[in-house]
Amino acid sequence: DCRQYTNRSCEECLKNVTCLWCASSKRCMEYPVRRILPPADLCELRSARWGVCWVNFEALIIAMSVVGGTLLIMLGVCCCCCCCKKKSKKPDKDDERAAREREKRRVRQEERRAEMKSRHDEIRRKYGTV
Asked: Where does the PSI domain lie (predicted)?
């Protein structure tokens, strides 16, 4: 029973993990497990201690909010970075059109080269320079 540690020390009260220490009233009581936070009529958040004596619920809530917010922001940034990388790797319509045009120009130039080579070969044969 947690009440037996009332008016003793916080350390003694919190040896039992089901106990909650209220520093303002120096009471040790059962932690209200049906609620996440102890109600204000039981003990103020800045006076409530659970688990360790050096952290009150108010500081714990603030610290967990900061850590949780930071994690959410980091997750959002990572998702944005991944989405941007995928979009940049995927060629858009302009890039595809430019690549098709480059390929057409290359094919036409090769055809012209082959045609010029055959003409030059004909001229060489005609004048016997081959």
From this structure: 1-54
Who's near 38: CB < 8 A, 6+ residues apart?
Answer: 20, 31, 32, 45, 48, 57
The residue ranges of the chain whose pLDDT is under 70 are: 86-91, 130
22, β-bridge pairs: 27, 48
Distance between CA 73 and CA 34 in Å, rounded?
Answer: 31
**Predicted TM-score of the model (pTM):** 0.55
Residues forming beta bridges with residue 49, ordered by sequence position: 21, 56
3-state SS assignment for residue 27: strand
Instruction: In whole angstroms, give the CA distance from residue 22 to residue 56.
Output: 9
Q: List the 27-30 sheet strands across, edge first.
A: 27-30, 19-22, 48-50, 52-56
Taking only the tens place, the pLDDT of each residue in 55-91 is 888 888 899 999 999 999 999 999 998 887 766 666 6
